[in-house]
C-alpha cells in the first residue's frame, strides 16, 4: 500500500479531532446538532483524501457505489418515521459492521496475494483481521435480527430453543479457534468460514433477548462495530479509522452501561437472562380478568375537574400518531386551570430518550417534560394520571415480582395517584410481555380504543364541558 | 518506539477520550448520541475505498463495491437521521406548527 504523505496524515489527524468534537457536541442539548454536522464534515473529508494520494483504480465504479449508498442512506433516513428510529439505527449499524467484515476479508485476500506473502505482515495484523471479520459479521447478523424484531417481522419475545446455549457456546469456540487458525496459517477459506460462524453467533446472541431490552443490544452492537472499524484501521494502516472506531467502541460501551443502568438491568442479564431460563413470564397473551372501563365522556369529566394531572406517554401514543391531539388536550386542560406535566420514563418509547424526540416533534413545550426522578414524588398528589399507550413503565411488577423480566427497572409511581386512566387498544400486555397488576386496581379506569381516535373524542368531550 | 506500540498508544488514549467526552450525557440525548456514534463508524467507507481501489481481482472488486455501498449507507444515512432527530429538539421553542410530512401515514 502507498505510504501516506504527511499532508494526508495531518488531514486525518484533523478528522480524528473532528470526531472527538462531534461526540462531545452530541452529548449536550444545545451543541448536539452542530456536533453531528462536525462529525459528518470530518467523515466526508476523510473519505475524499485517499483520492488525492493513492493511485486508485476503478474510480468511476467506486464513485457510483458511493452514490448508490448515499442515495439509499438519505432516502432511508428521510422516510423513516420517528417511531421507527430504533430499527433504522440498528439497520445502519448492521450494514456498517457488514462493510467492515467485507473490507477485512478483502485485505486478507490482499495479504495472501502480495509478494512475500504472509511473512511481511506480523501475526498481530492477522489477529486484528480475524477480529474484524468475526465481530463485523456478529454485528451484521445481530443488527438484522434486531431490526426484524423491532419491525415486527418476527416475534419480539425471547426466542430460545433447547440446546441454544450449547450451539451458542460452540459457535464462540469455533470462532476463537478459526481466528487462531487464521493467525497461524492464514488462508482464504478460514476467513470465509470465520465470517459465517460470526453470522451464526450474532444471530444466536440476539434471538434470546426480549423486545424491551433490544435497544440495549443495538447500543452494544454499535460499540462492537466501532471496535471492528478500529481493528480494521490497524490492518489497513489507517489512523483515522483506528481513532474513530475506538471512540465509538469506547463511548458506545459506556453508553450501553448508562442505558442498562437507566433500566435497572445488567448487560449480562439482558444478554443471557433468557438462556438461564429466567424470563418465562413473557407469555404475551391477553388477560380476561375483569377491569373497569369507561367512555370518553366519563374520563373527560375526571380530567376536567382535576387540579393536578400527569400524563404518562408511551410507544403506543406514537404509533397511533396521537401526540398532537394529546398536546391539544393538555393545552385545554391547562386553560381550565389544571397543572399538567408529562412524566417521561428514561426508556419510554423504545430507546432511551426516544419519547423526548417524539413529543418534541409534536411541539410539546420542553418545560412540561419531566424526567422520572423529578416527577416521581408528585404522583401521590396527582388527581388523575393518564397513561397513553404505555404499560411496562408503570407496571408495579418491577418492584414487587422478583423474576419478572422487568424486575428492578425503576418505574413511574403511577400507582400512587388517586385515579389512573389507561388508554389502551386492547388488554394485550406491553412490550415486555407481562401482565400489569395496575390495570386491575379499584382506582384504575380503562379507555379502550385506538389512541388517536379516543384522544380526539376525549378532547371534544372536555371542550364541551 | 515500536510501530505496534504506537498504535496501541493511540488506541488506549482514544478509549479514554471516547468515554470522557460523553460521560455527562443526559438520558434525553441517548438516542441521538447512539445514532451519531453509529454514523461515525461509517468511516469504514474510507477503508472500503482503499481496498477496492487497489485490487486487481474481479471478484474482490465486486465485494469491495458492495462494501462501499453498505458503508456509505451507514455513514450518510446515519448522519442524516441523527440530524433529523436533533431538529426536533431545536424547533421545540417555536409556536405550534404541524408538519404534514412528519405526521402522515404513521399508523401501521
Word description of this protein:
The complex is a heterodimer of chains A (465) and B (108). Chain A starts with 5 loop residues before the first helix and ends with a helix. In chain A, 58% of the residues lie in helices and 7% in strands. Chain A contains 18 helices and 6 strands. Chain A is of the alpha/beta class and 465 residues long. Chain A has helices at residues 6-26, 32-48, 50-53, 59-79, 85-113, 123-150, 164-184, 188-206, 214-235, 239-262, 267-272, 296-304, 315-319, 323-335, 354-361, 372-375, 397-400, 451-464; strands at 308-313, 339-344, 369-371, 384-388, 419-424, 444-448. A 6-stranded parallel sheet of chain A has the order 3-2-1-4-5-6. Chain A has 2 domains: 80-272, no CATH class; 296-464, Rossmann fold, CATH 3.40.50. Chain A is elongated and about 85 Å long. Chain B has one domain (25-103). The longest helix of chain B is centred in the last third of the chain and has 34 residues, at 58-91. Chain B contains 5 helices and no strands. Chain B is flat, with a radius of gyration of 20 Å. Residues 92-108 of chain B have low confidence and may be disordered. Chain B is mainly α and 108 residues long. Chains A and B meet through helix 1, helix 2, helix 4, helix 5 and helix 9 of A and helix 1, helix 2, helix 3 and helix 4 of B.
List keywords for this structure.
heterodimer, A: 465 residues, alpha/beta, Rossmann fold, 2 domains, 18 helices, 58% helix, B: mainly alpha, 73% helix, 0% strand
Amino acid at each position: 500500500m502507498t505510504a501516506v504523505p504527511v499532508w494526508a496524515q495531518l488531514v486525518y489527524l484533523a478528522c480524528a479531532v473532528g470526531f472527538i468534537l462531534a461526540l462531545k457536541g452530541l452529548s449536550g442539548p444545545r451543541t448536539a446538532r452542530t456536533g453531528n454536522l462536525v462529525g459528518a464534515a470530518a467523515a466526508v473529508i476523510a473519505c475524499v483524501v485517499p483520492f488525492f494520494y493513492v493511485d486508485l483504480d476503478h474510480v468511476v465504479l467506486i464513485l457510483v457505489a458511493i452514490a448508490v449508498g448515499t442515495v439509499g442512506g438519505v432516502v432511508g433516513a428521510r422516510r423513516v418515521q420517528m417511531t421507527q428510529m430504533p430499527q433504522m439505527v440498528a439497520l445502519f449499524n448492521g450494514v456498517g459492521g457488514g462493510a467492515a467484515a467485507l473490507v477485512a476479508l478483502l485485505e486478507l485476500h490482499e495479504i495472501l496475494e502480495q509478494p512475500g506473502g504472509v511473512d511481511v505482515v506480523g501475526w498481530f495484523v492477522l489477529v486484528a483481521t480475524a477480529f474484524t471479520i468475526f465481530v463485523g459479521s456478529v454485528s451484521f447478523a445481530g443488527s438484522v435480527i434486531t431490526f426484524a424484531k423491532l419491525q415486527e417481522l418476527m416475534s419480539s419475545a425471547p426466542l430460545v430453543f433447547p440446546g441454544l446455549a450449547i450451539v451458542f457456546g460452540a459457535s464462540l469456540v469455533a470462532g476463537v479457534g478459526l481466528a487462531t487458525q487464521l493467525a497461524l496459517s492464514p488462508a482464504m477459506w478460514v476467513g470465509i468460514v470465520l465470517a459465517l460462524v460470526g453470522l451464526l453467533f450474532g444471530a444466536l446472541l440476539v434471538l434470546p433477548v426480549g423486545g424491551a431490552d433490544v435497544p440495549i443490544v443495538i447500543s452494544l452492537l454499535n460499540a462492537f462495530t466501532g471496535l471492528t472499524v478500529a481493528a480494521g484501521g490497524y490492518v489497513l494502516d489507517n489512523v483515522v479509522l483506528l481513532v474513530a472506531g475506538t471512540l465509538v467502541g469506547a463511548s458506545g460501551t459506556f453508553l450501553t452501561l448508562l442505558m442498562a443502568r437507566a433500566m435497572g438491568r445488567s448487560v449480562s442479564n439482558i444478554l443471557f437472562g433468557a438462556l438461564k431460563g429466567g424470563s418465562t413470564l413473557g407469555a404475551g397473551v391477553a388477560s380476561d380478568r375483569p377491569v373497569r372501563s369507561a367512555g370518553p365522556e366519563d374520563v373527560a369529566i375526571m380530567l376536567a375537574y382535576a387540579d393536578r394531572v400527569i400524563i404518562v406517554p408511551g410507544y403506543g401514543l406514537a404509533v397511533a400518531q396521537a401526540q398532537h391531539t394529546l398536546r391539544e388536550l393538555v393545552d385545554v386542560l391547562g386553560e381550565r386551570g389544571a397543572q399538567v406535566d408529562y412524566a417521561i420514563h428514561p426508556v419510554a418509547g423504545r430507546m432511551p430518550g426516544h419519547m423526548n424526540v417524539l413529543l418534541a416533534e409534536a411541539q410539546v413545550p420542553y418545560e412540561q417534560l419531566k424526567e422520572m426522578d423529578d416527577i416521581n414524588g408528585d404522583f401521590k398528589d396527582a388527581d388523575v394520571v393518564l397513561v397513553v399507550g404505555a404499560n411496562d413503565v408503570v407496571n408495579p411488577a418491577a418492584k414487587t415480582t422478583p423474576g419478572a423480566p422487568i424486575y428492578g427497572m425503576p418505574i413511574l409511581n403511577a400507582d400512587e395517584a388517586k385515579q389512573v386512566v389507561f388508554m389502551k387498544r386492547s388488554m394485550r400486555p406491553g412490550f415486555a410481555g407481562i401482565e400489569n397488576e395496575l390495570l386491575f386496581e379499584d382506582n384504575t379506569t380503562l379507555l379502550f380504543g385506538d389512541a388517536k381516535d379516543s384522544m380526539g373524542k376525549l378532547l371534544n368531550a372536555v371542550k364541551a364541558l | 518506539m515500536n510501530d505496534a506500540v504506537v498504535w496501541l498508544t493511540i488506541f488506549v488514549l482514544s478509549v479514554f477520550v471516547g468515554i470522557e467526552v460523553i460521560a455527562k450525557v443526559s438520558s434525553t440525548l441517548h438516542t441521538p448520541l447512539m445514532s451519531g456514534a453509529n454514523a461515525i463508524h461509517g468511516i469504514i467507507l474510507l477503508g472500503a475505498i482503499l481496498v477496492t481501489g487497489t485490487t486487481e481481482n474481479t471478484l474482490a472488486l465486486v465485494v469491495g463495491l458492495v462494501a462501499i455501498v453498505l458503508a456509505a449507507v451507514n455513514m450518510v444515512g446515519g448522519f442524516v437521521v441523527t440530524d433529523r432527530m436533533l431538529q426536533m429538539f431545536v424547533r421545540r421553542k417555536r409556536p405550534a406548527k404541524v408538519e404534514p410530512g412528519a405526521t402522515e401515514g404513521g399508523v401501521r
